[in-house]
Sequence to fold (629 residues):
Amino acid sequence: MDYPRQYHDSLHNSGSYWLQQAENISWYKRPSIGLRNDSDNNYSWFDDGQLNTCYLAVDRHVEQGRGEHVAFYYDSPAAGVKQKISYLQLQEQVSVFAGAMLEMGVSKGDRVIIYMPMIPQAAVAMLACARIGAVHSVVFGGFAANELAVRIDDAQAKLIVTASCGIEFEKVIAYKPLVDKAISLAEHKPKKTVVMQREMLPATLDDVGDVSWEEFVRNGEATPCVVMDSNDPLYILYTSGTTGKPKGIVRDNGGHAVALKLAFNGIYGMGENDVWWAASDIGWVVGHSFIVYGPLICGASSVFYEGKPIRSPDAGAFWRVISEYKVNSMMCAPTAFRAIRKEDSQGSLVAKYDLKSLRWVFVAGEKLDSSTYQWLKDILQVPILDHWWQTETGWPMTSPMMGWDNPCAARLGSTNKCTPGYDIRVLSEEGAEVGSNQVGNICLKLPLPPGVSTSIWNQPERYKQAYLAAFNGYYHTGDGGYKDEDGYIYITGRTDDVINVSGHRLSTGEMEEVVSSHSDIAECAVIAVNCSLKGQIPIGLVVLKTDANISDNQLQTELVAKVRAQIGALACFKDVFVVQRLPKTRSGKILRAVLRKIAAHQPYQIPATIDDPAILEEIEVLLTQYYTR
Fold:
């Protein structure tokens, strides 16, 4: 395929272009309508199409004689379990669980909350919901009870599917008490809780509302897929909201399937005989799109990994998985590779494994710094490909098209060019489009392509206010950046990552790029602190590599000199603090917004997605000492 022609058609002949893409999946009723769009930018895709996402992901492959092909490689260094699950085995498990839900009274349109660790039953529950038209909402296992309660109430869930426990760095976390507390806090009471018992910590079940997974499926009979309209909801995925109330991002069935087919084959360059690994969690959009639905719709084998990049048992865990399952490509957040680099800075553990199957590695989730990029490229000797997308979009907005002929070459610092259907514009605060290489607000011209969420569950006006109100006719991504003269997109960070130092607007992301290039630093965050003289000044929080041998004073001297040389004295970068850890989400994103609020003495809410809340207390003490010194 030719990128310029395909991309042009996706924007200028969008209805016919996407109808052509829709030919690549199986429909019960093939759509005749591509894009429906009115004068108020209310639009939808494939209105008259009918399909079933579970059929596309499971049954179709069995019907085509590929039932013995591996759907999931389940690998859990946390539990010490490995398992291969074929498409036929998956069909049997999914259809029976779906039948059990029907028997219980769950039907099309009902909501089901899935609160589980990275075990195959989580995917079975997701696909079973899709099979009967129930709308699933996956919530991270181990989430705080009050956060789970909010989601129960917002979704009005009829059923909760959970496990007795999860495992985090060899620490076993009981889930059932958290679920019980959440139900007690919620105004809406689910009808039943299904519990997958794990042998390392079985749960005590109540007589009335609880049932074990084993007993639940015993009452189920294999059930066929129901017919779904293209715009029927497939799932709700809650993401953090600035008001403190989470936003339930809604994904449809038809546009989602068409977009993931294009993305998995075209962007990631993967086919039905490939092994793919998205090193993430099903609680994130990556898990929905590219652990479960995308790979299965395309008939590939997907690695389902319950473990960490380090201490599972060592920093060679990822290389072991790639070698063992002959992974052809993977996607991961840069922070995971930074954790590996911290423990094994020379990449010596790579030599223990045969990685010849690996073609390229995709990274996403946060900015890929140049030092991590170079380290990965050197030790793996394959292309390292940055790309960019959001929970709301569901699939990449910018990326090389690795499944097409002559994909756009990577440029360091760029997340590449726009993928089909995304018309990215860089706008000033006044809404005017800025020129090449000028930083502004990264926005998407409406209408958006298939698969992108167009609503928030139960809050349609909130979607408009959150994404469409800032710039008329555009979706505001909340990210800042620029586009070069060749159309490559560069993301500089969230728009609130810009600080004002004596009237100079400076990017903390740019400073982080400089700081992270130091040979002794594993990862870092640069945030603004208040200054009575200059308004704001930046400080650095850094985590050292395990084998680093440098004093704090020497490190600060070298980093200040680097920032001064590459950005300038006007940055006023003078203070660096070595910390043991940085506060992160469970996917590894550094919680910069929370750090900014702590530094500005503003009240903040501990995010439900935080990996370890105790880290915030340590940072608060450090910054308090900084202000009072």
Q: What stands out?
A: Residues 289 and 394 are 7 Å apart (CA to CA). The chain has a mean pLDDT of 92.
